[in-house]
Amino acid sequence: MFHSEADFQHALAWEMHSLDPGSRIRLELRLPEWDPREYLDVWAIWRGCEVAVELKYKVRKVTVTHDEERFDLRSHAAENENRYRFLKDLQRLERFVARTPSAVGYAIFLTNNPGYWTGPRDSTAADWAFRLREGELLTGALRWRAGTAKKRGLAEALTLSGKYHLRWREFSSFPQRSGRFRYLLLKVQTASDQ
Hints:
21% helix
């Protein structure tokens, strides 16, 4: 469990460095060739490979004490927008890996909100194309349902060049309501992977 997405980034970077003390790791790295508002959550030269990671940590309200540390998480609303942003991160990672053939990219979504791995169920939902449900296949053009008004920065269609079979895995579990955490790990696919 993490206090925030920044805490998640830090913990991942710490673990990567522990496994490879000679690695170079940076958080929130802006690449010069990208839009000045775009950053990589984690970038590393790790075990001889360039690695780019995008993280999402979207939670439901829960309070847990673990290893004598209190975690008091607040709910993150707007599941539809969070799914869109995760897939936009994946699209950005695909662009990065296409420009840097020696690199590998990963998109990780960690949550205790089952709405991400189970919904939306209604195929007429505005965000149907951005569903992250267990067992789904995501690829190609992804768009909001016609007539859906969206905030600036969330309206554009996304295009995934890879094919991503979604499989959520267990991360941790606590006895509290909303205490089950699961993650989705997507490795960016290149043309040679397909």
